[in-house]
Specification:
alpha+beta, 4-stranded mixed sheet, about 35% strand, elongated
């Protein structure tokens, strides 16, 4: 049996990240870590916060006795979300003069952001290749 160490490196307050590992759901407390015993081989891993914040499924091949994975927030999603919110603030006052602008802002833009968020994921999984990991 190999050990999988999941570290929460997301810079948010009071967030519990859920990890789906081969159909089993584990919770990682805020800025904590979770140690899971798994068989060596290929596994499917997905980190999410809620139904709307699910990311893509990552395939993970565990070959070592101890594998450490850092779960971090996806900064690209937050940057694009900031751009969308700024666009909404600019376009909504302009829609008083041109009402056609309101339709893409209210309906199409949130759908596009949701699809992009589901593809890229709210969290990124990074394997820590540190050779100084202690054998637990």
């Amino acid at each position: 049996m190999a050990k999988l160490i999941l570290n929460d490196k997301v810079n948010t307050i009071l967030t519990v990240i859920k990890v789906n590992l081969d159909g089993k759901i584990y919770s990682i407390p805020n800025k904590g870590q979770k140690i899971i015993e798994v068989e060596k081989g290929e596994h499917k891993l997905r980190a999410y916060k809620s139904i709307f914040g699910k990311g893509p499924i990552k395939k993970l091949n565990i070959t070592e006795d101890v594998t450490e994975i850092d779960i971090k927030g996806n900064k690209e999603i937050f940057k694009s979300l900031f751009i969308v919110i700024a666009a909404i603030w600019i376009i909504i006052p302009l829609s008083i003069f041109v009402p056609v602008l309101l339709l893409p802002v209210v309906i199409i833009l949130p759908i596009v952001m949701y699809v992009i968020g589901q593809k890229k994921g709210a969290y990124t999984l990074e394997i820590n290749n540190n050779k100084n990991i202690q054998k637990l």
